Structures are given as structure tokens and as C-alpha cells.
Amino acid sequence: MFTRSAIFEGRIHPGHEEEFFRLVEERLLPVWKRMPNAQAVRVMRTVNTDADTPAIVMVQEVDYPSMAAIEEALASPVRAEGRAITDEMMRMLDGRFYHLVYNRIAPK
User: Fold this and answer.
1) Is the model's pLDDT at 98 over the cut of 90?
2) For residue 107, pLDDT beyond 90
3) 14, 59, 64, 73: which could form a disulfide with 35 (CB 3.0–4.6 Å)?
4) Quick check: bond before 14 cis, omega within 30?
5) What is the pTM of this model?
6) pLDDT score, position 56
7) Among residues 58, 48, 53, 55, which one has the least CA distance to residue 22?
8) Reduced to 3 states, what is the DSSP secondary structure of residue 36?
9) Residue 108 pLDDT
């Protein structure tokens, strides 16, 4: 099992927190769930961190059965659809997002 994760780092513009997460829940999450080969999608909103950590606002994870499945998803038109909504969302965030792909070690 492979997971592609998006880390959203920065600060949401004051007064836009609920709008930001409403856009994620109502518009982005359905697109992420339609990604080809996606087996599970998780979105986590940060509620507490250690004092010295970066300002992580949100983490998104999508599970795929293989690296080839991730490659197929990244080449799909569904990804472009999600990226357009993400660009809209990023106008409410002073920061950036980046991706990690990892292979699950446990549980197996």
C-alpha cells in the first residue's frame, strides 16, 4: 500500500478558516475521492502541535495499491480538476503545499 500525502503549511487568512475548510469538505474531498485507483482518502485539520513545529494547517492522504496507480492518478483529468480548486483554496492561505509518497510498513 502506498499513500500520497499533501501537507498544507502556512496560515489561513484571518476570518477565512471556516470558508477554507468548507471548500475542502464540500468541493475538494469529492474530487479526491474520484481519483483513479484511490482506495481511501483522509483529510486531517490540525488542532494542536508541538511548540517548535512548522505551521501545518491540514494533511491530506490518499491510499493507492501501487506506485503505478499513483502515476495513473497524477496523469488523470481528475487531478487537474482538483488542482483548480486547490489553487482557489490557496488564495486563502499564506503558505504552500507539498507532497510525500510513502509505503506503509505497519500494520500489514
Assistant:
1) yes
2) no
3) 73
4) no
5) 0.92
6) 97
7) 58
8) coil
9) 64
Beta strand segments in the chain, E: 2-12, 40-45, 56-64, 93-103
- Give the structural domain span for 60: 2-103
pLDDT in tens, 57-77: 999 999 999 999 999 999 999
Q: Is residue 79 part of a domain?
A: yes
Q: Hunting for cell 511548540 — which residue is that?
A: 51
Amino acid making up residue 49? T
Instruction: Assess if residue 108 is contained within a domain.
Output: no
Count of domains observed in the chain:
1
**How many C-beta neighbours within 10 Å does residue 65 have?**
12
CA dist 45 and 2 (Å) reads: 21
What does 66-81 look like in DSSP terms, one character per residue? Answer: SHHHHHHHHTSHHHHH
Average pLDDT over residues 5-32: 97
Query: Residues of 79-104 as b/e, b for ≥16 C-beta within 10 angstroms?
Result: beebeebbeebeebbeeebeeeeeee
